[in-house]
Design goal:
Layout (H helix, E strand, L loop, with lengths): L3 E2 L2 H16 L7 E7 L3 H17 L2 E7 L5 H12 L6 E4 L9 H7 L11 H8 L8 H12 L8 E5 L6 H10 L3 E5 L6 H5 L4 E4 L17 E4 L3 E2 L5 E2 L4 H4 L5 E2 L6 H20 L3
The protein binds guanine.
The site of guanine has 8 residues, from β4 and α6.
Protein backbone atom coordinates (compact mmCIF):
# COMPACT_ATOMS: atom_id res chain seq x y z
CA UNK A 1 0.00 0.00 0.00
CA UNK A 2 1.17 3.46 -0.80
CA UNK A 3 1.37 6.21 1.86
CA UNK A 4 -0.67 9.40 1.78
CA UNK A 5 1.64 12.20 0.66
CA UNK A 6 1.27 15.15 2.99
CA UNK A 7 1.14 18.29 0.89
CA UNK A 8 3.02 20.97 2.84
CA UNK A 9 3.01 23.30 -0.13
CA UNK A 10 -0.78 23.41 -0.39
CA UNK A 11 -1.15 23.80 3.37
CA UNK A 12 1.39 26.65 3.37
CA UNK A 13 -0.62 28.47 0.68
CA UNK A 14 -3.74 28.15 2.83
CA UNK A 15 -1.93 29.40 5.96
CA UNK A 16 -0.40 32.34 4.08
CA UNK A 17 -3.79 33.38 2.71
CA UNK A 18 -5.14 33.39 6.30
CA UNK A 19 -2.18 35.49 7.45
CA UNK A 20 -2.75 37.98 4.63
CA UNK A 21 -6.37 38.32 5.73
CA UNK A 22 -5.45 38.80 9.42
CA UNK A 23 -2.58 41.18 8.64
CA UNK A 24 -4.81 43.39 6.49
CA UNK A 25 -6.88 44.16 9.58
CA UNK A 26 -3.93 45.63 11.50
CA UNK A 27 -3.50 49.41 11.53
CA UNK A 28 -0.20 49.15 9.69
CA UNK A 29 1.67 46.52 7.71
CA UNK A 30 3.74 44.08 9.78
CA UNK A 31 7.48 44.39 9.12
CA UNK A 32 10.16 41.70 8.98
CA UNK A 33 13.89 42.50 8.85
CA UNK A 34 15.94 39.80 7.14
CA UNK A 35 19.68 40.04 7.69
CA UNK A 36 21.95 38.07 5.37
CA UNK A 37 25.70 38.11 5.96
CA UNK A 38 27.95 36.90 3.14
CA UNK A 39 27.18 34.97 0.01
CA UNK A 40 26.20 31.41 0.96
CA UNK A 41 24.18 30.37 -2.13
CA UNK A 42 21.61 28.32 -0.18
CA UNK A 43 21.03 31.26 2.18
CA UNK A 44 20.51 33.58 -0.77
CA UNK A 45 17.78 31.26 -2.09
CA UNK A 46 16.11 31.05 1.35
CA UNK A 47 16.14 34.84 1.69
CA UNK A 48 14.63 35.30 -1.75
CA UNK A 49 11.84 32.87 -0.86
CA UNK A 50 11.16 34.78 2.36
CA UNK A 51 10.79 38.02 0.39
CA UNK A 52 8.21 36.31 -1.81
CA UNK A 53 6.32 34.95 1.21
CA UNK A 54 6.25 38.42 2.79
CA UNK A 55 4.81 39.92 -0.39
CA UNK A 56 2.14 37.21 -0.45
CA UNK A 57 1.17 37.84 3.18
CA UNK A 58 1.12 41.65 3.02
CA UNK A 59 4.21 41.87 5.22
CA UNK A 60 6.84 44.54 4.59
CA UNK A 61 10.25 42.93 4.14
CA UNK A 62 13.36 44.96 5.09
CA UNK A 63 16.36 43.27 3.52
CA UNK A 64 19.89 43.85 4.72
CA UNK A 65 22.87 42.24 3.07
CA UNK A 66 26.25 42.58 4.78
CA UNK A 67 29.48 41.45 3.08
CA UNK A 68 31.18 38.10 3.82
CA UNK A 69 33.93 39.90 5.77
CA UNK A 70 31.53 41.92 7.95
CA UNK A 71 32.65 42.11 11.56
CA UNK A 72 30.66 40.95 14.56
CA UNK A 73 30.31 44.61 15.51
CA UNK A 74 28.76 45.39 12.09
CA UNK A 75 26.14 42.68 12.60
CA UNK A 76 25.44 43.63 16.21
CA UNK A 77 25.05 47.31 15.22
CA UNK A 78 22.48 46.36 12.58
CA UNK A 79 20.59 44.07 14.99
CA UNK A 80 20.49 46.88 17.55
CA UNK A 81 19.15 49.29 14.91
CA UNK A 82 16.41 46.78 14.03
CA UNK A 83 15.60 46.26 17.73
CA UNK A 84 14.86 49.99 17.93
CA UNK A 85 13.18 50.40 14.53
CA UNK A 86 9.45 50.88 15.10
CA UNK A 87 8.30 49.57 11.71
CA UNK A 88 10.14 46.28 12.22
CA UNK A 89 8.22 43.70 14.24
CA UNK A 90 10.36 40.64 13.57
CA UNK A 91 14.08 40.13 13.00
CA UNK A 92 15.64 37.14 11.28
CA UNK A 93 19.39 36.68 10.98
CA UNK A 94 19.98 34.03 8.34
CA UNK A 95 22.20 31.17 9.50
CA UNK A 96 24.90 30.02 9.08
CA UNK A 97 26.98 33.15 9.74
CA UNK A 98 30.58 33.55 8.48
CA UNK A 99 33.08 32.01 10.90
CA UNK A 100 34.43 35.30 12.30
CA UNK A 101 31.00 35.96 13.80
CA UNK A 102 29.84 34.33 17.03
CA UNK A 103 26.34 33.08 16.24
CA UNK A 104 25.34 32.81 19.89
CA UNK A 105 26.23 36.44 20.64
CA UNK A 106 24.24 37.65 17.62
CA UNK A 107 21.14 35.56 18.39
CA UNK A 108 21.17 36.73 22.00
CA UNK A 109 21.31 40.36 20.84
CA UNK A 110 17.92 40.11 19.09
CA UNK A 111 15.15 41.55 21.27
CA UNK A 112 13.15 38.50 22.47
CA UNK A 113 9.84 40.10 21.41
CA UNK A 114 11.16 40.46 17.84
CA UNK A 115 12.79 37.01 17.77
CA UNK A 116 10.50 35.37 15.19
CA UNK A 117 12.90 32.41 14.79
CA UNK A 118 12.53 31.69 18.54
CA UNK A 119 16.28 31.16 18.91
CA UNK A 120 16.88 33.56 21.84
CA UNK A 121 17.47 31.69 25.14
CA UNK A 122 14.43 33.42 26.65
CA UNK A 123 12.18 32.01 23.93
CA UNK A 124 13.93 28.62 24.01
CA UNK A 125 13.22 28.51 27.76
CA UNK A 126 9.54 29.23 27.13
CA UNK A 127 9.44 26.41 24.56
CA UNK A 128 10.89 24.02 27.16
CA UNK A 129 8.20 25.07 29.62
CA UNK A 130 5.41 24.70 27.07
CA UNK A 131 4.81 28.48 27.23
CA UNK A 132 6.10 29.52 23.82
CA UNK A 133 4.74 32.71 22.30
CA UNK A 134 6.84 32.13 19.18
CA UNK A 135 7.10 28.50 18.20
CA UNK A 136 10.26 27.61 16.25
CA UNK A 137 9.32 27.64 12.58
CA UNK A 138 10.32 24.17 11.37
CA UNK A 139 8.96 22.18 14.34
CA UNK A 140 5.81 24.34 14.32
CA UNK A 141 5.40 23.60 10.61
CA UNK A 142 5.66 19.87 11.29
CA UNK A 143 2.99 20.09 14.01
CA UNK A 144 0.66 21.97 11.63
CA UNK A 145 1.10 19.25 9.01
CA UNK A 146 0.29 16.53 11.57
CA UNK A 147 -2.82 18.44 12.72
CA UNK A 148 -3.98 19.05 9.16
CA UNK A 149 -3.93 15.31 8.47
CA UNK A 150 -5.65 14.45 11.76
CA UNK A 151 -2.56 12.82 13.29
CA UNK A 152 -2.50 13.22 17.08
CA UNK A 153 0.95 12.58 18.62
CA UNK A 154 -0.70 11.90 22.00
CA UNK A 155 0.28 8.47 23.32
CA UNK A 156 2.43 7.74 20.26
CA UNK A 157 6.11 6.93 20.21
CA UNK A 158 7.87 9.66 18.24
CA UNK A 159 11.48 9.23 17.20
CA UNK A 160 13.32 12.41 16.22
CA UNK A 161 16.59 11.83 14.36
CA UNK A 162 18.86 14.85 14.82
CA UNK A 163 19.56 17.00 17.89
CA UNK A 164 20.10 20.49 16.48
CA UNK A 165 18.97 23.58 18.35
CA UNK A 166 16.97 24.67 15.29
CA UNK A 167 15.01 21.46 14.69
CA UNK A 168 15.73 18.29 16.68
CA UNK A 169 15.55 19.60 20.24
CA UNK A 170 12.55 21.95 19.86
CA UNK A 171 10.77 19.32 17.71
CA UNK A 172 11.04 16.85 20.58
CA UNK A 173 9.60 19.46 22.97
CA UNK A 174 6.57 20.31 20.81
CA UNK A 175 5.77 16.59 20.41
CA UNK A 176 6.23 16.05 24.15
CA UNK A 177 3.84 18.92 24.90
CA UNK A 178 1.26 17.08 22.81
CA UNK A 179 1.70 13.99 24.98
CA UNK A 180 3.98 11.91 22.78
CA UNK A 181 6.69 9.64 24.16
CA UNK A 182 9.80 11.00 22.49
CA UNK A 183 13.18 9.49 21.67
CA UNK A 184 15.94 11.72 20.25
CA UNK A 185 18.56 9.94 18.14
CA UNK A 186 21.84 11.38 16.89
CA UNK A 187 25.23 10.50 15.43
CA UNK A 188 26.29 8.58 18.57
CA UNK A 189 23.11 6.48 18.81
CA UNK A 190 24.42 2.89 18.53
CA UNK A 191 21.55 1.20 16.66
CA UNK A 192 19.60 3.81 14.74
CA UNK A 193 17.58 1.23 12.84
CA UNK A 194 16.30 -0.42 16.03
CA UNK A 195 15.25 2.97 17.41
CA UNK A 196 13.52 4.06 14.18
CA UNK A 197 11.60 0.78 14.00
CA UNK A 198 9.94 1.74 17.31
CA UNK A 199 8.49 4.94 15.83
CA UNK A 200 4.81 5.55 15.23
CA UNK A 201 5.93 8.99 14.03
CA UNK A 202 9.45 9.28 12.65
CA UNK A 203 10.97 12.74 12.10
CA UNK A 204 14.32 12.93 10.34
CA UNK A 205 16.31 16.17 10.50
CA UNK A 206 19.90 15.21 9.81
CA UNK A 207 20.86 16.31 6.30
CA UNK A 208 22.11 12.97 4.97
CA UNK A 209 20.65 11.66 1.73
CA UNK A 210 19.41 8.07 1.97
CA UNK A 211 19.73 7.89 5.79
CA UNK A 212 16.23 6.50 6.35
CA UNK A 213 15.59 3.33 4.35
CA UNK A 214 12.41 1.26 4.15
CA UNK A 215 13.72 -1.43 6.52
CA UNK A 216 14.00 1.23 9.28
CA UNK A 217 10.31 2.12 9.16
CA UNK A 218 7.54 0.28 11.01
CA UNK A 219 4.66 -0.57 8.63
CA UNK A 220 2.00 2.13 8.93
CA UNK A 221 4.28 4.73 10.57
CA UNK A 222 4.05 8.45 9.81
CA UNK A 223 7.31 9.71 8.29
CA UNK A 224 8.31 13.38 8.31
CA UNK A 225 11.38 14.45 6.35
CA UNK A 226 12.78 17.80 7.47
CA UNK A 227 16.06 17.65 5.55
CA UNK A 228 16.89 19.63 2.44
CA UNK A 229 19.79 17.91 0.70
CA UNK A 230 21.03 17.71 -2.86
CA UNK A 231 21.78 14.31 -4.38
CA UNK A 232 24.63 13.61 -6.82
CA UNK A 233 22.49 14.85 -9.68
CA UNK A 234 21.96 18.16 -7.84
CA UNK A 235 18.30 17.41 -7.21
CA UNK A 236 16.66 18.47 -3.93
CA UNK A 237 15.96 15.54 -1.64
CA UNK A 238 15.54 14.72 2.03
CA UNK A 239 16.98 12.10 4.41
CA UNK A 240 14.31 9.54 3.55
CA UNK A 241 14.39 7.11 0.63
CA UNK A 242 11.00 8.41 -0.49
CA UNK A 243 10.16 5.84 -3.19
CA UNK A 244 10.75 2.82 -0.95
CA UNK A 245 9.55 4.27 2.38
CA UNK A 246 6.27 5.49 0.88
CA UNK A 247 5.45 1.79 0.29
CA UNK A 248 5.77 1.09 4.04
CA UNK A 249 4.55 4.27 5.77
CA UNK A 250 0.92 5.39 6.16
CA UNK A 251 1.73 9.10 5.70
CA UNK A 252 4.87 10.76 4.36
CA UNK A 253 6.11 14.28 3.55
CA UNK A 254 7.85 14.82 0.22
CA UNK A 255 11.00 16.90 -0.38
CA UNK A 256 10.50 19.42 -1.84
CA UNK A 257 6.92 20.40 -1.08
CA UNK A 258 6.63 19.04 2.47
CA UNK A 259 8.06 20.69 5.57
CA UNK A 260 10.03 23.45 3.78
CA UNK A 261 7.07 25.58 2.67
CA UNK A 262 5.46 25.18 6.11
CA UNK A 263 8.64 26.42 7.85
CA UNK A 264 8.38 29.61 5.83
CA UNK A 265 4.64 29.94 6.49
CA UNK A 266 5.33 29.66 10.24
CA UNK A 267 7.86 32.49 9.96
CA UNK A 268 5.09 34.61 8.46
CA UNK A 269 2.75 33.57 11.29
CA UNK A 270 5.33 34.56 13.91
CA UNK A 271 5.86 37.91 12.19
CA UNK A 272 2.11 38.52 12.21
CA UNK A 273 2.01 37.60 15.93
CA UNK A 274 4.89 39.98 16.64
CA UNK A 275 3.09 42.79 14.84
CA UNK A 276 -0.22 42.08 16.55
CA UNK A 277 1.48 42.51 19.91
CA UNK A 278 3.19 45.76 18.95
CA UNK A 279 0.51 47.57 16.94
CA UNK A 280 -2.14 49.39 19.01
CA UNK A 281 -5.71 48.28 18.24
N1 LIG B 1 19.15 28.65 8.31
C1 LIG B 1 18.60 27.44 8.10
N2 LIG B 1 17.40 27.37 8.72
C2 LIG B 1 17.21 28.55 9.33
C3 LIG B 1 16.15 29.08 10.13
O1 LIG B 1 15.14 28.44 10.41
N3 LIG B 1 16.33 30.36 10.55
C4 LIG B 1 17.43 31.08 10.27
N4 LIG B 1 17.53 32.32 10.77
N5 LIG B 1 18.44 30.62 9.54
C5 LIG B 1 18.31 29.36 9.07
Amino acid sequence: MSAVIMDGKALAEKVKAQIREKASKLRRQPGLAVILVGDNPASQVYVRNKERDCAQCGIMCYDYHLPQDASQEDVLDLVEKMNNYGAVDGILVQLPLPEQIDERVVLEAIAPDKDVDAFHPENVGRIMQGQAYYKPCTPAGVMEILHEYGIDPGGKHCVVVGRSNIVGKPMAMLLLHENATVTICHSRTPDLKAQCLQADILVSAVGKTGLITADMVKPGAVVIDVAMNRNEAGKLCGDVDFAAVSQVASYITPVPGGVGPMTRAMLMENTYKAAKCRIPK
